[in-house]
């Protein structure tokens, strides 16, 4: 008898299709990016400035968007934390959910509906919360406590990559999200745009063909994975 998994997140109950297969596929996406990042680092012409313990982005970047597949992996990683640490993380995260609710309300527009979010409005609301400068509750002694389960944005943050390129009027500006690279002339970047798109496709399959949209990182940290016999 197979297990039916459900992800409870942001008030939504998301039935999951083949979740273990989806997590394995997500790991393969991350491994592909890591392989490309390794090739980037091995070229001496490419600056690689991010290092373990360089946690400024995490100290000021608790809020960002994740797909359903990333939310599942992050929830599983939090679930696996030692009890005392997990409780501490969840307490801090629930406090940040209140910060999120207040910040979302400051953005004019239709009410926020997880599972049916308008992407433009959601991005504006994410930006509003980010301006609070809240730190990630998963940061512990300047290191990520769920490093192997961290989302794609966290993995891409320390590299110049086209995954978060800014495109306008036929001009593409490729950048790193990390301020350490500001103003540097880059020889090349880490390809990641295709992998970022794949996260959406993977999440649709995980959702049984339904696109649940994106969730905040804090919603993913506080999500719960329910397992039952089917």
Going by helix content, strand content and strand pairing, the class is alpha+beta
Q: Share of helix among residues?
A: 40-55%
Instruction: Assign an overall shape.
Output: globular
Rg over CA atoms, rounded to whole Å, is 18 Å
Mean of residue pLDDT values: 90
Low-confidence stretches: none
Number of helices: 8
The order of strands across the largest sheet is 2-1-9
Largest sheet: 3 strands, antiparallel
Span from first to last CA?
6 Å
Into which percentage range does the β-strand content fall? 15-25%
What would you note in describing this structure?
The chain starts with a strand and ends with a strand. It is globular. Strands 2-1-9 form a three-stranded antiparallel sheet. Strands 3-8 form a two-stranded antiparallel sheet. The chain has eight helices and nine strands. It has 230 residues and is of the alpha+beta class. It has helices spanning 19-42, 56-59, 68-79, 83-105, 119-130, 152-156, 193-206, 217-221, and strands at residues 3-9, 12-16, 65-66, 139-140, 143-144, 161-168, 171-175, 215-216, 224-229.
Please supply descriptive tags for the structure shown above.
alpha+beta; 9 strands
Write a compact overview of the structure shown.
This protein has helices spanning 19-42, 56-59, 68-79, 83-105, 119-130, 152-156, 193-206, 217-221, and strands spanning 3-9, 12-16, 65-66, 139-140, 143-144, 161-168, 171-175, 215-216, 224-229.
